[in-house]
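Readers outside the structure-tokenisation community will struggle with the description of the input data as it stands. Showing the layout once, in full, would remove most of the difficulty. For illustration, here is how one protein appears when written out as sequence plus structure tokens:
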Amino acid sequence: MSPSQCLIPYVDPATASPDVAAALNRMPMKRHIFLLLSHAPGLFPPIMSTYGAFFQSKTRTIPLLDWQLIVLRIASTLKCAYEWDVNAPVARVHGMSAEVMEQVAVCQEISPGDDQTVFSERQRRILKLVDEQLQTYANEPATVKSLLEYLSYAELVEAIYVIGLYVMIARLVKSVGIDLDGEIPGLDNLIRAGVN
């Protein structure tokens, strides 16, 4: 067995508090990131409730592939391979093309109106929002106004929630390290059943 890449031990669900164990058991897949996040037992259940809300179309307003576009851009820009490895299968199973995923990974500057890319205009505007957030923690008013031609207010706010949550996850992973989850048998079916 190779040594762990994580600088802190993973929480053992068998010895976790009842609230933490319940939150861990609600997730559709077992992932190391949940075992790291659960080191903050008072914050973990509400964070997992928010995180879990993104998995369900009845609680998430932003379309699934927009959510994954944002997450993959964060993972690529912040060089968080673990976050990419966890989310790329979700995007793929739900129809994101290999070409779009490849271009997200490249992280080249996105210009709204540039129709020479594989991205739709909606995707270009979302990526512009994400890129500005990752560079300056803010957005130009013109970027937001332009995006509101494609997103509702709720979708815009959710997009910023996604950015905040997944940047936090990337920072945790890059600060303390993490081990890859390894193969999850039936992953595609678990994704189809647990993420809609």
User: Anything to note?
Assistant: The two ends are 36 Å apart (CA to CA). The chain is about 60% helix and 0% strand. The first helix runs from residue 18 to 26. The mean pLDDT is 92.
